[in-house]
Sequence to fold (341 residues):
Amino acid sequence: MAHKNLLRDFKRPKNIIFEHEEVSPFYGRFVAAPFERGFGVTIANSIRRTLLSSIQGYAITAMRVEYINDEGKNALLSNEFESIHGVFEDTVQVVQNLKRVRLKLLDETESRAIFVKKNGEGTFKAGDLEIDANIQILNPDQHIATLNEDASLFIELQLDLGRGYVAAERNLAYIESIGTVPIDAIFTPVQKVNFRIEDTRVGQRTDYDKFVLEVWTDGTITPDDAVADASKILKEHFTCFINFEEEEEVEEEAEDPEEERMRAVLKTAIEELELSVRSSNCLRVAGIKCIGDLVIKNEEEITKIKNLGKKSITEIQNKLSSLGLGFGLKNLSHLTKSKII
Fold:
């Protein structure tokens, strides 16, 4: 079976338009068109599902806390149900707060441990984890814990790169140090995705698809980069289904909008001119099926059409004139080739 020019006659968007007026690392609105009918929802839904499930991000996957207990001795947190002396919140709540911290490592390493020491009364916030220039905290005001004057903590946190959601039980398998508490990891940086499909016009046709995609992220990845990553993931998954060598598609030159409109007019069937029955029958018998077939003929050729009188010719001229056309328009012949019409 021939595989050449599979995409010929398919309407596809040349690029995707980023429509959000303000530059924001948290929100993006994208528009892509035109797609053949049905391809809009197929592609938009695939991108949406991939964005929500498969984009990489960083999360805190484990913590280890050493503290001074109420007897003044060093103690090690053994599990999330044990309280920490000097901390107002119970440990379960502290873990929940740590899960909400959104961060990234600027050097893009896959794993790293960070160490934080807290003494005395105060508030422990996500911004306190930004211990060097390589760590970026996107929500520095995220509350982690409230400390009283007796607090003396040494905290070790494990940061990892991953995707989706990983339960604490799975993270437990990678823990080697005694006293390390695993944490449910929410790696995905994409928080929400919406899309809608609208009709769009190309030439005279109005049944092509346009999709409008809205993406919200936590700021660790920009929406346009997230869409690019999702598209790359989909592309690589589809590649294995192609069982032949791909040839480079020869793209047609971009067409002037007015020329594209005129091409659509020239492809219009003669019946749509709403001529009299006599005029329509004469043109049909003469093999004239569309407006393009009609306008490339000069007036002399038209008068030679059997049974087509002056009244019918005048009627046809008036219809063509209303479209900005007439007889003998040879300069439009490049738009009336049979392979296009």
In short: The first strand starts at residue 17 and ends at 18. Confidence is low (pLDDT under 50) at residues 336-341. DSSP finds nine helices and 15 strands in the chain.
